[in-house]
Design brief:
The chain is of the alpha/beta class. The protein is built from eleven helices and 13 strands. A six-stranded mixed sheet has the order 1-3-2-4-5-6, sandwiched between helices. Helix 5 links the parallel strand 7 and strand 8. Helix 4 runs parallel beside helix 5. The longest helix is centred in the first third of the chain and has 20 residues. The two termini are 20 Å apart.
């Protein structure tokens, strides 16, 4: 996530509110809850708890796009509405939410998803009922080709990790790199891809270690890393642990550049890590300072609506809605099958995160944008792949 300046607090939905109808405010508000004149979009993510920011920001991007589309006449003349579910980050809730979406025949596509484990649990349900999904924050390679109905406009861990590995060696010139990663599908996948790419580029992994989500003390691991004197430290994980790693590394006198992932790309990384994360390099697919008319219009509209700059996750979710619109227009219909066939056929749909196209496994085809923390803000790195 990328944002500068003030940040509105994330509002976690009540845990009991697993499913609710959310009519968007502003131009997208109101309208019937059913009928041929309604095109419903299901939205699910982890909207409560420690990692709520990912889904809260995606939901904001969806709401803004829906408002704009409704103001322009909707999707093939149908008014767009959003049905929201909080999956709480629990894989057990994946099939539950998916079945509720499947049972609502007016829901033509599902957006969102914060965690790959939840999406993986839900995919078989969507596959059975023929409901397409376009996810914006789940990156596990296990989701590639998991269903003909599953698409995503975020890159996989394997692609992102490999691009960061090549960038670290070929662009930044680091040869000896230590890695720390969270032990789960996300951390394991992105770290394995990063290490493989480093070696293929001629670099060396001098230390490799894992940690559990929620770990508070990394001093033992960092002391071992200090003993092998790497050129850089790669952290494959989310922002709460990445901020602690950076802070404790600096306390121990480790001055190496720290590299991170999109899982740490949150304003909370800077809020938690402060000066310790200065100079940290991460990646995403969007930055609000990019000089294009589309990006600047989006940033202006988002700031007016939500009082803050949009994050990478907001931008991806915003683009997902417009990719669905393009899919419907390409297919010439609003049925679930129309949306699915349209998504499989769209090419280079313009968006604020760049053009959107999907390969035969439902994965997006593009490169990441490398960013760095400078003076307490995320900014595009001077060098890119």
């Amino acid at each position: 996530m990328i944002r500068r300046g003030s940040r509105a607090p994330a509002i976690a939905l009540p845990l009991a509110a697993i499913l609710m109808l959310a009519a968007c405010a502003g131009p997208g508000a109101g309208g019937s809850a059913g009928g041929s004149g309604v095109f419903k979009i299901g939205f699910t993510g982890t909207l409560s708890g420690e990692f709520a920011s990912y889904a809260v920001e995606m939901r904001q991007g969806v709401e803004l796009a829906v408002d704009e589309i409704n103001a322009a006449g909707g999707v093939e003349g149908a008014r767009v509405e959003i049905v929201v579910a909080d999956d709480r980050g629990e894989p057990s809730q994946g099939p539950v939410v998916a079945q509720r979406f499947c049972d609502d025949e007016d829901i033509k596509v599902v957006l969102g998803y914060s965690f790959s484990s939840v999406a993986l649990a839900a995919v078989p349900v969507y596959d059975r009922c023929g409901l397409p999904v376009l996810a914006s924050a789940v990156t596990s390679p296990d989701l590639s080709g998991s269903s003909r109905y599953f698409f995503r406009n975020v890159l996989t861990d394997a692609v992102q990790g490999a691009q960061m590995g090549r960038y670290a060696v070929d662009v930044l010139g680091f040869r000896r790199i230590a890695t720390l990663h969270q032990v789960d599908d996300y951390g394991n996948g992105v770290n394995a891809a990063f290490e493989s790419a480093v070696r293929e580029a001629g670099g060396e992994i001098v230390s490799s270690d894992g940690y559990q989500l929620g770990t508070k003390d990394f001093r033992g691991q960092l002391t071992r890393i200090d003993s092998v004197d790497p050129d850089a430290i790669f952290v494959g994980g989310f922002y709460p642990e990445a901020a602690k790693i950076a802070e404790q590394a600096r306390d121990l006198g480790l001055g190496q550049r720290i590299l991170g992932t999109d899982g740490s790309l949150s304003p909370d990384l800077i809020a938690l890590g402060g000066e310790s994360v200065e100079g940290m390099i991460l990646y995403g697919l969007f930055h609000p300072s990019l000089e294009s008319p589309e990006v600047q219009r989006f940033v202006s509209s988002f700031e007016e609506r939500f009082g803050q700059e949009p994050s990478s996750w907001s931008a991806l979710a915003y683009d997902a809605v417009y990719a669905v619109k393009a899919a419907v227009e390409l297919a010439g219909g609003t049925s679930r099958d129309d949306v699915r066939e349209g998504l499989a056929g769209v090419e280079n749909v313009p968006g604020v995160t760049g053009p959107t196209s999907f390969n035969e496994e439902g994965d997006r085809i593009t490169n990441v944008l490398f960013l760095t923390v400078r003076d307490g803000e995320f900014v595009p790195a001077e060098k890119q792949l």
